[in-house]
Please model this.
Amino acid sequence: MKAKIIIASPLQLINAIEAKEYLNVKSIDISFFSDGNITNERQVKSLIQELKIKATLSTIEIPKNPNFLERILFLKNLKKNKLNIDNYEYIIVGHFRSIYQAAFANLYNAKYVFVDDGTRSLDDISFLNRFGYNTKAYKLKTLLYAFFSVKPYLVCKEYTFFSYYAKKIEVKNHIQILENTFSYMRSLNRKKSSKIEKKIAFVGQSLVDSKLVTLDFYLSLLNNIDRYYKNKYPKGITVEYYAHRNESDKVLELVAKMPNWVIVKNKLPLELHFLFSSQFPEEVGLFFSSVAETLSVILGNELKLKSFFIPTDKLLYRKSEINNLFETNRESEDIELISNYNY
Model:
């Protein structure tokens, strides 16, 4: 059984590999849509090497800031990247609503399986639960793209998702969700030294670069978290700040100026970084990243996970969605939600 994997990030690849194992696929090839982010590409290649994945990897370079006609030309030319293989049982897609991945997937005739792209899959499934592509706006866009012989939307009678959130969201009859329990990653769990390293791991997020919060507010959050750690560890402790692959140098340079905070650019996605590390940190801090949930599933209570709450009135958008994510962390047995740290 053979599958084509279409992804644009290391997290999508982790979930696609889990889907491959779940579906008992024996042979794969991988198409990686690259936006030029060096860290992103390095982690994808490191992941393939570390997991000893036997697959052909082809990279498709996405144009930067294309206008409409440039985007159309890129989508039309995607067929040049299509391998002369049509015996795929599955097309495993990393992000359901990426027009690039969708247009490429539409070149193949096979069963589509959509995996999590962090918490965005919750929004994708909610989108399909409501109206999906049946609105007037999408129908007009579809006609416009069809004029140029391009199909950038995956319109199906039935949708199959392979998701960690299978038991956490209700779906309508045209949506099927297979549960991702990260059984493959958990099977790789390596024995750790009983010694815990005297350091904190903090998971960075591109909240400033995505304009979700202001730079000043983000830095104030980190400074308050720094005080929280100083009170908890009065003898002092190093905080390793794991930079998100989309964080700008400007943000990271300011974080690096905080005493005892060290910027780390990990080679592997954090899920595998901690899985393959010889020792664990004292604890892992973060805000609402999906890595909290994936780490809690893969490593269980081996890692101390703390989620630092951000008041929704400080968020510039996605307020309801992110508040729901914090509530999920609050209810988790493996994640401690920290609400009072003077934000």
Observations:
- The mean pLDDT is 92.
- The longest strand covers residues 27-34.
- The radius of gyration is 21 Å.
